[in-house]
Write a structure and sequence with these properties.
6-stranded mixed sheet
């Protein structure tokens, strides 16, 4: 082969690269400080992957091991083999810049074009035909991020984290510090990308986004994105810029670069090294950190969780983006839904306004339809299903029967916002409704959580859900009402599984540390753990309605349903009923929506039927006993 190379050099004393390849190689050499040998390697690789003749010629060499490949390239490119080994190592500039990928596994046997490949399929074409500035050679890898749309006021709930990040990044940029990484994580649409843009703006620094798609707008692989990241680090290192890499889950689950094997140890080591040595500060964005190894997470300088903003900020975002063209009822629905993120809402409003540019309140139906469709696709309840408790217009705390007087409770809670209340008693006696009334009187949002919202079959997830519920309530300044609390505070002495004990322990811990108003409701107070009972400031029993309350509610419902009882015959039928609750009246009122009552006696009969079901339930035999 050496003889053939000598004959070629004697025959072709000079030869040129085709198209714009020579000019682009020279420009790239200046940009990345590549020497002549490195440019020769890169030029050969570009031609091998764009010129069919050279591709076929390379394949004619057959299957090559790594050492054989070095010998071949050394002869073809007239570069000493030892020097070539250094150029093609993972520490070489060509690999670090994401220009080349080299399969260095000595045990692997493959073709030369597979041994030596480009970092991105768009690169060879750009190298041959690009006529713009050298940095345009990397437009497949990164692009300048557009300006952000949100101000600091939209991140008031994260103000401390934002201030720390701003100060830390400012110092890192001045000092040229390497290995600066910030992890931003949270549900989609909570403003992670916008926060990275806002921080870049406050620092008067360019922010470049690592590409997620290729020139055809098709998604690129994790390894290609890593190559793009390395390219950005090499090209922009002197620009004092910031980088942002979105949806990083696939990167941390991806195999290590070519030549490092597929073992998890090699993968972890590669990512750790990348985090420690990157030349520019980088934002890493993730919707969930569950897939990230703890060893990776601890290497981030700052880890910032972006949950759905607090209720007050969600309301401000909705009103700002809609220019007050949404009705108050829909705004309340959007605010109350914990999974309706700002991005989902603003996109729906933008589409609705484009369809109805001159509409006033007529945007509501379109916005609700669009938001509901997105929430359904994400696996969440629609807006209507997520609404908080709504009290009837005639609700009054005088229509509940408790064992302690409730006079002055609201004033006391206004003076002492931190309290833990336990509401217990039979179903339907108004425990949840009274919690809703309390929240309204205190002018605070109500956050109702039920067993189905929090219990998970996965180990540790129930405890995490409980912690998140208390954290969300704290963030929103909400009254937290936990319904069917006996599921979380059951007597630990009766526990059969270890997770039942840990769930109770987590619940007790959260109750102790919560600094707001917490209300627990249960039908089964005797099943509660004794330690939990001591932690409640008040335990209030909600009993069945007394006769004056029954008569008042019956009269109110007659008026609402436009029924009359002039002789008081129907109301007299209820005087002997001892187990009527506000829930029974609500149930028959719902029944009347699709099966209207003809007269007052039918309404009374429906109420009596509700109480008979309770009696029948008590008399029902257990198991096989009759």
């Amino acid at each position: 082969m050496k003889g053939e190379r000598k004959l070629f050099d004697e025959t072709f004393t000079t030869y040129d690269y085709p198209d714009m390849l020579e000019e682009n190689l020279e420009a790239l050499g200046e940009l990345l400080e590549l020497d002549a040998a490195e440019l020769r390697i890169l030029g050969f690789c570009v031609l091998m992957h764009t010129d069919p003749t050279l591709t076929n010629a390379a394949d004619e060499l057959g299957m090559l091991g790594f050492n054989r490949m070095l010998a071949v390239l050394s002869t073809l490119l007239d570069i000493p083999q030892l020097q070539l080994t250094r150029y093609l190592s993972n520490d070489g500039q060509l690999v670090r810049a994401g220009l080349l990928e080299v399969n260095t596994l000595s045990c692997s046997v493959t073709t030369l074009s597979s041994r030596l490949s480009v970092g991105n399929s768009d690169l060879p074409g750009l190298m041959r035909f690009n006529q713009d500035e050298p940095i345009e050679l990397f437009k497949y890898a990164f692009r300048l991020s557009p300006p952000g749309e949100l101000g600091l006021d939209k991140y008031e709930h994260l103000r401390q984290h934002v201030d720390i990040a701003q100060a830390y990044l400012a110092k890192a940029l001045v000092e040229g510090r390497s290995g600066v990484n910030i992890l931003l994580y949270g549900p989609p649409g909570t403003g992670k990308t916008q926060l990275s843009r806002l921080l870049a703006k406050t620092l008067n620094t360019d922010l470049y986004e690592i590409a997620c798609t290729d020139s055809d707008d098709d998604p690129v692989s994790a390894s290609q994105r890593l190559c793009a990241l390395r390219s950005a680090m090499s090209v922009l290192h002197s620009h004092k810029s910031l980088l942002v890499l979105d949806e990083i889950e696939d990167i941390f689950d991806s195999p290590p670069p070519m030549g490092m094997g597929d073992r998890s140890k090699a993968q972890k080591g590669w990512i750790n090294r990348m985090l420690e040595e990157n030349a520019l500060p980088c934002f890493w964005l993730s919707n969930s950190v569950e897939s990230l190894d703890a060893a990776h997470i601890r290497r981030f300088d700052l880890v910032i969780n972006l949950p759905n903003p607090p209720r007050a900020q969600r309301e401000q975002i909705i009103r700002d983006c809609s220019a007050d063209k949404l009705g108050n009822e829909l705004v309340e629905k959007l605010i109350d839904h914990e999974h309706a993120t700002p991005a989902v809402i603003t996109r729906a409003v933008r589409i609705a306004r484009s369809l109805n540019p001159r509409a006033g309140k007529k945007l509501d139906a379109t916005v609700e339809c669009l938001v509901d469709s997105t929430l359904k696709a994400q696996g969440f309840d629609k807006l209507e299903g997520a609404q908080g408790q709504r009290l009837p217009s005639f609700y009054s705390p005088e229509l509940i029967n408790t064992d302690v007087p409730l006079d002055g409770l609201v004033e006391g809670l206004r003076k002492h916002a931190e309290a833990r209340l336990c509401f217990y008693g039979p179903p339907g006696t108004g425990k949840t409704a009274f919690g809703c009334w309390l929240a309204q009187e205190l002018d605070r949002p109500l956050m109702v959580q039920r067993v189905s919202d929090l219990v998970s079959p996965y180990v540790g997830q129930t405890e995490q859900n409980l912690a998140e519920a208390f954290a969300q309530a704290t963030q929103d300044g909400a009254v937290l009402l936990l319904d069917e609390v006996d599921s979380f505070l059951q007597d630990r002495r009766k526990a059969k599984q270890s997770w039942e004990v840990t769930a109770v322990n987590e619940m007790l811990t959260q109750m102790e540390s919560y600094r707001g108003l917490f209300i627990a409701s249960t039908n089964l107070i005797r099943d509660l753990d004794e330690a939990s009972l001591r932690r409640f400031d008040m335990k209030i029993y909600f009993g069945y309605l007394d006769q004056p309350q029954v008569q008042q509610l019956f009269s109110t419902h007659l008026q609402a349903l436009k029924l009359k009882d002039p002789t008081k015959t129907a109301s007299l039928r209820l005087r002997s009923e001892q187990q009527l609750t506000p829930g029974d009246f609500a149930s028959v009122a719902r029944q009347a929506r699709f099966k209207p009552f003809a007269n007052a006696n039918e309404l009374a009969s429906a109420l009596i039927a509700e109480t008979r079901l309770k009696t029948a339930g008590k008399q029902r035999p257990i198991g096989f006993v009759h």
